[in-house]
Amino acid sequence: MPRLSEKQFAQLEAELAKGPAAHGWEDQRWTLSRVKTVIGRRFRLTYTLQGVRKLLVRNGWSCQVPARRAIERDDEAVAGWVKEVWPCAEDSRR
After folding, report:
1. Contacts of 51 (CB under 8 A, 6+ apart)
2. What pLDDT score does 2 carry?
3. Rounded CA gap, 58 and 74, in Å?
4. Is residue 45 classed exposed, middle or buried when 0-12, 13-18 and 19+ CB atoms within 10 A define those classes?
5. Handedness of CA 4, 8, 10, 15 (dihedral sign)
6. pLDDT value at residue 66
7. Burial class (CB in 10 A: 0-12, 13-18, 19+), 52
8. In the 8-state DSSP scheme, what is residue 68?
9. Rounded Cα–Cα distance for residues 89 and 50 (Å)
10. Burial of residue 47 (number of CB atoms within 10 Å: 0-12, 13-18, 19+)
11. Residue-wise pLDDT tens digits, 43-88
12. Per-residue pLDDT, 64
């Protein structure tokens, strides 16, 4: 499996420091999938999501969870989605 060198990882950190918006995403969340995409675009290397996680953890990065809920959150819309949309999504997977 191809691996990023220390120099390439430093370049990746510089790309991540620019934020997701600089790479075309609307919000400011880095996900494993997004980091994987940046690695593919920048270094032409393919990582699995698990490989990206291991790469980040090995280099001192950790998973972060928001401290509070978004002000824009609509609990009624979430409840409706869970009740109506999620069961259909579950059925389509079977």
Report:
1. 1
2. 58
3. 37
4. middle
5. negative
6. 74
7. buried
8. S
9. 24
10. buried
11. 999 999 999 999 999 999 988 877 787 888 888 988 888 888 888 8
12. 82
> What was the pLDDT predicted at 84?
87
Calpha distance 39→56 (Å, rounded): 12
Please give the residue that has the higher pLDDT: either 1 or 6.
6
**What's the gap between Cα 29 and its chain centre?**
7
Give the separation between CA 26 and CA 94, rounded to whole angstroms. Answer: 32
- What would the two tokens of residue 3 be? 């691996």
Q: Which two tokens stand for residue 20?
A: 């997701």
Give yes or no for a contact between 28 and 20, defined as CB atoms under 8 angstroms apart: yes
Of 56, 10, 14, 17, nearest to 33 (Cα)?
A: 56
Q: Please say whether the beta carbons of 34 and 19 come within 8 A.
A: no
- Cβ 35 vs Cβ 16: under 8 Å: yes
Q: Contact, 15 vs 23, CB < 8 A? A: yes
